[in-house]
Write a structure and sequence with these properties.
- The protein contains 4 helices and 17 strands.
- It is mainly beta.
- The chain has a 14-stranded antiparallel beta barrel with strand order 1-2-3-4-5-6-7-10-11-13-14-15-16-17.
- Strand 2 and strand 3 form a beta hairpin.
- The radius of gyration is 22 Å and the shape is globular.
- The protein starts with a helix and ends with a strand.
């Protein structure tokens, strides 16, 4: 199995590189789901143990202890301009396997369509303004299974369908595969996740008939139907749980994220591969009340003077409460912009129910 993973990864890199794949394709799928994960800097590959494993690492589905597990999240990005929604459901197939369904939407709604702002007489008529949405959708079907490798390696895979649209002007369909694994021993947890392991292809179709008149008047070129490629990325996480007594314990995790779409502004960039780092700590009281902190998204920023650079990162905080089979989590994430604008904050709530 490990040989096949490597072959798939190498095949995806070679094929996509030959077609000059764009960077940051399908980036909405890297925002993350669940307030717990966001509060811990998205370092979740090794520790995920609930329905959200359908997104983070399908192998984690095997750690669910209830018959059914459902979760939902809503978040607003960029000061409320963009809406991010998630829902997931998981249930066992038998004693050795689990399945899950995940749905994600990231969209900007009520975008003004001003093509007909001016009437036939050249006057502005606001009644002619229409509105549309630019939305990205992803639907994932996950399967996970126990194995006897390495003394109990869990593995899982995702098949995902992607639909993206910009009103009636353009839309795209895509398909991809993910593969993940988890291993636990003596309080240590290790997780590996290969996203878009065979590369993910989005085929775009443009409705140029709606834009022809405007494009001719403004001197723009009409868009052509095309294929957008998402290159593989790999996450490797390690975590350690320490219980000080029967009431208090902590869980610490560290994760590397390696992308294959060229140089990015991260900790370890190269022309082919770029590697970033994320980490998080979760303290708990009786496995009922939780406090969390995380760090990720390291970037090198140039000084305003244009001389020299400095490093910035994204700090995240959160808390959670578990009452029997019901869990509510909260995360406060901070996204730096620039010195003049300061930072933008996002408040994220997620709910989970097992029964």
């Amino acid at each position: 199995m490990r040989v096949w993973i490597i072959l798939f990864l190498l095949l995806g890199i070679r094929t996509a590189s030959a077609q000059n794949a764009p960077r940051f394709s399908n980036e909405f799928l890297n925002i993350g789901v669940s307030a717990r994960a966001l509060a811990m800097g998205n370092a979740h590959t090794a520790i995920v143990d609930d329905v959200t494993a359908g997104f983070w690492n399908p192998a984690g589905l095997l750690r669910i202890k209830t018959r059914y597990d459902i979760s939902a999240m809503h978040a607003e990005q960029f000061g409320g301009i963009a809406q991010y929604d998630y829902a997931g459901f998981a249930t066992p197939v038998d004693s050795n396997s689990h399945i899950a369904i995940t749905a994600i939407r990231f969209g900007i709604d009520d975008i003004p369509d001003t093509r007909f702002l001016y009437d036939a007489n050249g006057n502005i008529n606001y009644d002619n303004v229409r509105f549309f949405s630019a939305s990205d959708y992803a639907f994932l079907v996950s399967y996970a299974r126990h194995s006897k490798w390495l003394g109990g390696l869990d593995w899982g895979a995702n098949a995902k369908v992607i639909y993206r649209n910009a009103g009636n002007f353009a839309n795209a369909f895509g398909f991809g595969l993910d593969f993940g694994a988890q291993w636990r021993r003596k309080g240590w947890q290790v997780g590996v996740m290969f996203k878009d392991i065979t590369t993910t292809f989005n085929t775009w179709t443009h409705n140029n008939a709606l834009l022809y008149d405007v494009y001719v008047q403004t001197g723009n070129r009409l868009s052509k139907n095309s294929t957008e490629i998402t290159l593989p990325r790999m996450m490797i996480g390690v975590a350690k749980e320490i219980n000080f007594n029967e009431k208090i314990g902590i869980l610490a995790t560290l994760e590397t994220i390696t992308t294959t779409d060229g140089r990015r502004n991260v900790l370890l960039p190269t022309d082919r591969l770029s590697t970033d780092l994320a980490g998080g700590i979760e303290a708990n009281y009786k496995k009922t009340a939780f406090l969390r902190v995380g760090i990720n998204n390291f970037q090198q920023i140039q000084n305003i003077s244009g001389v020299g650079t400095f490093w910035r990162s994204q700090m995240n905080f959160g808390m959670g409460v578990k009452i029997k089979k019901f869990t509510i989590d909260y995360a406060l994430t901070r996204n730096y912009t620039d010195r003049e604008s300061g930072a933008l904050y996002s408040n994220v709530f997620s709910l989970k129910l097992g029964f």
